[in-house]
## 1
Amino acid sequence: MDLKHYLQTNRALVDTALQSLLPAVGTLPVRLHQAIHHSLMAGGKRLRPILVLACAEAVGGMREPLLPFACGLECLHTYSLIHDDLPAMDNDDLRRGRPTCHKQFDEATAILAGDALLTVAFELASRPIVGITAETILHVVRQLAIDAGFSGMVGGQMMDLLAENRQVDLEELRSIHRMKTGALIRFACESGARLGGGSGEQVEALKNYGAAIGLAFQITDDLLDVTGDSRIMGKATGKDHDNAKSTYPSVMGLPSARTLAEEQIQLALDHLKNFASSADPLRALARYIIERTH
Amino acid sequence: MDLKHYLQTNRALVDTALQSLLPAVGTLPVRLHQAIHHSLMAGGKRLRPILVLACAEAVGGMREPLLPFACGLECLHTYSLIHDDLPAMDNDDLRRGRPTCHKQFDEATAILAGDALLTVAFELASRPIVGITAETILHVVRQLAIDAGFSGMVGGQMMDLLAENRQVDLEELRSIHRMKTGALIRFACESGARLGGGSGEQVEALKNYGAAIGLAFQITDDLLDVTGDSRIMGKATGKDHDNAKSTYPSVMGLPSARTLAEEQIQLALDHLKNFASSADPLRALARYIIERTH
């Protein structure tokens, strides 16, 4: 299993699909599409769409027909980055080594680019898929809305903002991140398994896999903010400390945070125990989640 | 046809449904739900959900099962108001006689409340409906995403911002409003007809009805900004002039703008000519659109 090659191939696949699924950068209103393009085509890892494809593959499903759906998740993820970066929120100037959307354009354009990406995520997610019933797609679209909304991503971001400048305990921190970053990663795995035609048991196993790597991903993000190289990361580091934000390292200490991340990866691998070699990309991805440097 | 009674009854129906469909105001994170509640339960006209119900009724369909869907449109409309009111956009302090969301709370909370309302709109729109196929619902959900996104509402708001401080002609103005306000009103009628089980011809007729009243609605909004009473309107008037915004009165003059609105209402009524008395609420609504004082 050559993960580097797998990621490269799949990133290229997602990038090409995004280019063909979204309007060209010159479409009216030009400024809006420039802003969408600026943030969406900025060299993201494409983790969420790749998880959709890899989970479909793991249950023996087709990958290609799920590309629009998978790209929808990347649009939704990108919207959350654009809005989180706004001055009223995390006030970030740099993202993936480039000016954030509101720095490159302006706040109004960034708010609208985020709104448009959130909306188009549902357009892409609700397209018919060959071989999948409309009932299944509708069920998945609704779950996406739940995981992205006040019970998921948006609620988690609000709780994260409300937790600034005060000490939170491990339980609250996990609850925040289960919503803020965990929900969409878990959803990517669950929906990939479901749209790939997995059994109820398989869907459940991959959902649990997603929950575990989601937590490991967030802990690694926090660790990289402390120990990472801002040149490799393409964004400022040490921000959590400067913003007096509670993180896994600040709440548990660096060694315990590393151990918790390791445990989650082991848990994720355990959830894959009944899967054959078709789940090898997911096994490799789990390791990559905590070994990445950006 | 007692429209006043019809509107009152239907507003109460929508208000009750919204209360039961959305989490209570004390749900975690409390601040987010307070903000959502503040903007959503502020005494809106509920025009879009009422159009969904009235169009379903016009084609002989059931109204009750469409309530969650109809409420989704009100959530989506409310999100657009919250984001449009932000300082980076139209910078409004007052809406329906109350402080706008970012004035009552703060910008971050308002952005997130808008994001949550946009997202929950798709959760409500993608719920199963008794007697309607999942294919039809999925089709309608996708159309909602198209009409709300960069080709519709969001794109129209961007074009509106880009048109500030310069003179636009009538064609550009119509194109902006066809997207910004027209798309969702048209969609409300089209989706109500489709989910109500209307024939292809009926759906088309009610879509055209929606397009016509949508334009009349916008012209009336512009007229009220010039001639309306801010105490009745619950928001500042004369803002378009202060913001150097092109409006129907500023582009065509007051009398021509009034005539254009009247023509659109006549057009809307023409589209209802093959409908029986079940479309009487829509006929009355068309007149109300331009006769309203707020």
## 2
Amino acid sequence: MTQDAPMGVGVIGFGTIGTGVVKLLASNADVIASRLGFPLRLARVADLDTARDRGVDLRGAPFDSDANALIDDPAVHLVVELIGGYDASRRLILRALGRGKPVVTANKALLAVHGKEVFEAARRGGADVAFEASVGGGIPILRALREGLAANRIESLHGIINGTTNYVLTQMEQGGEPFEVVLKRAQELGYAELDPSFDVDGVDAAHKITLLASMAFGAEVPFKEVPVEGIRDVTPLDIEMAAEFGYRIKLLGITKRRVDDAGRERIEVRVHPTMIPADSLLAKVDGAMNAIAVHGDAVGPTLFYGAGAGEMPTASAVVADLIELAREVRRGSTGRVAPLSTLPEALVPKPLVPLGELHGRLYLRFTAQDRPGVLSHITGQLGRHGISIESVIQKGRGHAGASVPVVVFTHPASEAAVRKALEAIDRLPDVTAATRVVRIEEEL
Amino acid sequence: MTQDAPMGVGVIGFGTIGTGVVKLLASNADVIASRLGFPLRLARVADLDTARDRGVDLRGAPFDSDANALIDDPAVHLVVELIGGYDASRRLILRALGRGKPVVTANKALLAVHGKEVFEAARRGGADVAFEASVGGGIPILRALREGLAANRIESLHGIINGTTNYVLTQMEQGGEPFEVVLKRAQELGYAELDPSFDVDGVDAAHKITLLASMAFGAEVPFKEVPVEGIRDVTPLDIEMAAEFGYRIKLLGITKRRVDDAGRERIEVRVHPTMIPADSLLAKVDGAMNAIAVHGDAVGPTLFYGAGAGEMPTASAVVADLIELAREVRRGSTGRVAPLSTLPEALVPKPLVPLGELHGRLYLRFTAQDRPGVLSHITGQLGRHGISIESVIQKGRGHAGASVPVVVFTHPASEAAVRKALEAIDRLPDVTAATRVVRIEEEL
């Protein structure tokens, strides 16, 4: 094959993103070739559903349901895996890498859980695996961590990395409507899946922050140990209270580096609704958009913003990866950059900081009978556990005996102490529902 | 040399950035080696001023004033050029490339004006030249354009790419003070140079937008033809009026792709104070921070934010480039990515769109005698040239015969027509000073 011969791309999974990839390879063929030095050409497509019309021209590329045959097809030099999930995708990716064919995937779930196996297979197969599309859609955040900020010791990363939940929270904020109402509308509009739990319970964000934490800190991060909280329990009152105190509530993936006095390095990795200063850039990220704020010791604060999902933005990331891998294949030069930024042999497990050790301001929403003395019981328990209160707000009054919310903003407090206080408070006879906690991140 | 032997870095120019590079190579040596697979080691430093104490430990690396000897030193594998300017820097870069030694530079002025010669020398010498630090300080924006967004046809780019002017404008806004007062304070604080013209007259931003436009559009951009306007004429009144109409004023580098009906592609490249929607992300970028909003046809809107200058942020970009070039040297694989993203042979001159052809809303500030009938003369001339007015504001009234500002926001108008109208208006006997024009960019 000559240096400027076209290189063949096989696409497994012909859904929304796959369709975008096919479109983009055609529509921007000239741009891609002018950057790469040779064309990328769609060589073959595989999907179980071969009947549905995706409305794109395959320009003669074979299309059937046989993903294995696609991988083995000598016309396919680069494999794109877009079927998602854990099983079939894993098997297909390993097959391709085993045959020395580089793989581009958007599968964060697989990489967060089975990344080690996949990267090891890539190394053994002498083929690269690229996954820019798996986090932040079209935002080139993985490249930024791996190369652009490679000279930095990363200190922290805060990301709005799930578009569905950011869309729902933004809508709740704008309309003052409860979660369920907004979610239903989001489902009707296609912004949320029919089974939304993967998004709204924070699982998708947890997959992504697991990958980001690995890259940021050169750490093996056990996905199952990452604490995750979704947005189902966020209420319009929480959002209103946040606004009153100068915050907005965002579902964030957060990861930070912590070094204790003995020099031991541990990392925080977590996903939860978070109050962030309303005047921070991250707070301005609305609707389905994503953004990742990265703080490096040399570069200081940075932020990367863009569409976190969608047909063409995600295809943008997939095809950027194809361009990079095509370059490596043609130059006979794979394994240029370590997939998780740190060389595999230098990746080490780093202990996670337990939530109880977090120390920061907290928003607490109590639900209590509207009776004299309740407030003093609650604040008394907080005081007894050493938690200092910044503000207490009792919003509205119910009829006699009704439950009302009581909102407390604490001064910086140990989360373990707060949990203990809440155990006691939630047992008070006048407290009628479990207390809700929203963490506050000030430094953004 | 074995695969994990250290690689030697020679730093020419031991000022602020050079000092940052020396510090970073030492402080993050472990992180760098864990990503690269071998250490980067400071091998030699050259600067004309060998007397001043920079307060950093050179760890035995030789330091003298002989930049040529540094380049020729076999212990130096990678050369960092940080002296700036056109002449000595050009000579040194060409010398290094001619000897096959890769070069990292932050010199946007040189690359904007002599880029072609430098990139050609790199190709001939079989050595790479990297320049991430030349635009946006620590923000990895060049990598994003070259690789992360490589699958896109870039549509537009709007950048706050000069920290000094953004600092001055932010301060003017916060204190309502005139340009000269704020500039003086900025100079005292070290945010502006003693000779500030390079920054405040937009020249620095013009160098950067020239490079960005080349990368975005695969175009040879003649720096000298880029229209440039600085911020000296921006007044507190302009800033106040902008705020009243929902805008903020930022000095932007702007570049856009335009295709006319005949399919001919031309590009807009310009630097000027610009009113942008106050609720856009770019408008929230305050102080000395930089941000670049890039719109790609597939990815849609993106934004890259971070420190645009300063010792350690700029060193972050320089050392990231060193890591990349070290990798290529060790793999014997230079020229991986075209320096301007598009392959040199595919780079073509693309005609610039003249300012007269711009079409958009404009802010006009007239200075006129406060006499009856003046307003009707001004608006009459605008009407005669087909310019439709959205709002007219006459702020305050002077004593009889004094000059007062009259502010007009136009509907979208042809800039050529506006210029013609202004020629007529500025000749009116009651108009006592040249009319100021600020362009408005809505789509951000």
